[in-house]
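Dock methionine sulfoxide; give full complex structure.
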Amino acid sequence: MTGRAEIYDEVSRQLASVLEGEGDRIARMATVSCLLAQAFPDNIWTGFYMVDRAKEDELVVGPYQGTLGCLRIPFAKGVCGAAARTGETQVVEDVHAFEGHIACDSRSVSEIVVPVRDPDGTLFAVLDIDNPEAGTFGETDRAALERLVADVFG
Ligand code: SME
């Protein structure tokens, strides 16, 4: 059985190949969402919330795969808001124990949210992944996803 780390490595290889020469950020986010969702089909939501520069401290939904996502999230709320506010990856074993969690899909039980920065180091999005089982995400996922977003967007 292929481990999570190996799956992330394969997704990164696919991304490097497919995205070669493609500079558009929306296209890159859409492709990351697609390939991660295909690689981990048990996840129920995989995608991005982007920093809305027209608003103060608010995220707006970007490219994603999965059930209907909330359109906007203030930095003060949710797991995504916590990642945007702190600049730190949020690995949540059980979202029901996370104060202020926003349930776009009631099936979500575990979640990981990774800050996404541009080459200047400026936060412009977060990568959000939800799963219906508790404790799905750990150090392997955090390290692999932080490396993946740095490779693709950094
Ligand atoms: N659960 C997230 C909201 C986004 S939906 O999961 C796609 C949060 O608490 O910020």
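Observed: Residues 4-153 form a domain with the Beta-Lactamase fold (CATH 3.30.450.40).
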